[in-house]
TrEMBL record:
This is MraY family glycosyltransferase. Its EC number is 2.7.8.-. PROSITE patterns: MRAY_2. One of its GO terms (molecular function) is transferase activity. It is a multi-pass membrane protein.
Amino acid sequence: MIETLLENFTPENNITIWLVAAFVIAFFVAYQTFPTILYVAKEKHLMDEPDSRSVHSDKTPTLGGIGIFVGLIVVMTIIGAFLNTKVLLLIMGGLTILFFLGLKDDLTVLSAGKKFMGQLLAAGLLIVFTNTRIIGFSMIMEIDILPYWISIIFTLFVYILIINAYNLIDGVDGLAGTIALCVSGIFVYLFVNAHELSLATIAIALCGCLLAFLRLNFSSRNKIFMGDTGSMIVGFLLAFFTISFINMAQLDGSSPYFRASPALAFALLFYPLMDTLRIFFLRIVVHKTSPFKADKNHVHHRFLRSGYSHLMTTILISGINVVIIGIAFNLLHLNLNTQIILLLLYGSVLYVLPFLIKKIH
């Protein structure tokens, strides 16, 4: 009976059941994994020690990325046989590389150079062996198709940018997880519409893992951080989703996102990219220091200093990012350069509003 069911079952004809199953498996596995991680972290004293940059006063486990990784790998292993196994295996390879690099960084210390090389290796595997890359600028500043090697190098740059931009916003309870949850949910919608079930499955599995993680990340008694392990693998997947979406749109002239995919991708990740650009500007131009020197000048730090709680900061930043994405979807008919200029304008204004409202009150 089971053999007959497996032979006749096709995910494409049962998309809703398939995606719900992937979500439930990922959530359940991660949900059951986190208590064990908490127990081991506390017993072995694998905790984050608060320092001058911390916004927490208590020691907290930083191994939440393990639960996210396990949930993703279990989903891809169990249901991978039905999908594009080449893509899944390469993603699993990239995730594994970053998982062990992040774990070493969370447990001891890993140099920025080694992390950078690991990120390049993980991204390079996917770019070269799946040929998933940004093939052009879609006429941004009148630039269309890029030469192959420039396309490779630019795509690698985008991977590194997104992975590290995502890592930089992991400074407030729930913020990184909530942003990734919202963005991954939208990618599920985009990939289903593009008939890319393998990518939709990974995206919804990530949603399940993140939802299980956020339960503890918001907790006051059993709090856990995703750490570098989590931020690198989640950032890597968000970068892969972004580049895959742009690549699919650029190769499909009938796609509604054919010319608009770069603007929509920028909107999806507006907060981490905007915050990274802003923090680098402050460090290099204003403070005359290294762009990689950690400080407390991120937008989420400004929210906290203005009197917003961790929860309110996360709600406001995530909510604004969702509004920005909603506006971007409604501007797809405009010229791409116009979309990007407007995005920079209304995105910046929306993130200034909470501070103006706070001053008025």
